Amino acid sequence: MKTSTNEASQLIDRYGRKIDYIRLSVTDRCDLRCVYCMSEDMQFVPRSQLLTLEEIEEIASAYVELGVTKIRITGGEPLVRKNIISLFNRLGQLEGLKDLTITTNGTQLQKYAADLKAAGVTRINISLDTLNPELFHTITRNGQIEKTLQGLDAAIQQGFNKIKINSVILKDRNHHEVIDLVNFAIERGIDVSFIENMPLGITGEHNHQGSYYSSDQIVQDLRHQFELIPTTEHTAGPAKYFRIPQHPQTRVGLISPHSHNFCDTCNRVRLTAEGRLLLCLGQEHSVDLKKVIRANPGNTEILKQAIINSLDIKPKGHDFNIHSNEILLRHMNMTGG
Ligand code: SAM
Ligand code: SF4
Which single residue of 29, 151, 289, 315 has CA 20 to 30 Å from 131? Predict the structure, then answer.
């Protein structure tokens, strides 16, 4: 990845927050159906309505010119999008981009880990909620844990700067596995983050509210086994990190949209696979960037101005409230994690 200076950031919102991070969802499709993320029978966006890979690159490039230094590719499952490696290859060449990362369920990583490394991907987040094959199959509604574990091994072999496991912790399903998941990460010298269930989308029989297990409770559970030292480190994302003095290679992150709202320091925006720019994961404020680029083909200045103007509607904070019965109708696979 080329590192040179881009324009000083022009992306500062009404609350003085500097936006230097964009998450790009490249597809809403996935080969798994995690209970907290999707319903079993999902209606996906017709392929004709998705941004093309070239359009995604155009938008990413405009963001980097405006001061964004970190891009995360997500989905749905990003590695099921056709020709996705060509997008990584092009993004890896963007001047001024410091960090190109991906969030994946790992099922395709055995095939693509080497290509991602060669394209300049620096860090990989792999979702793994349980180490129990049957429970994995139940939570993902059809997945085989071996594929994700083989993908994880392939990523470790490639030697990315950082690899992190993401686990959504669900009460009475996998909450008893948090110590095992930390030990699993320690054995591999990688990080692990625990995520609170967010009430996004109607996901069939899954009850977002009843599955809520707080980060504070997770920390309490982990302290039975590990000495956890809070740190002020962060990786541009919303996780709070702990170190375990005996295992310096592994950090334990907590992503707590409910119990520890992180909106004050929000530095990111998200683009859906259809080109809708979301200014907040937990609100519906959005701008249709697909419309902007299709109405003004090749006009980077108009695109950049639309991106700058969009910050006027970035809200102060999200509206998630796990204790109410309200949920956002948008599923997580629309926007990525
Ligand atoms: N398919 C990829 C994966 O699973 O890593 C990338 C997309 S997935 C939507 C991104 C992250 O969002 C995953 O770590 C997933 O566990 C998390 N996620 C999905 N639905 C969620 C929800 N309702 N609450 C909290 N996290 C969620
Ligand atoms: Fe697919 Fe990721 Fe959603 Fe699971 S969390 S259904 S792997 S997009």
Answer: 29
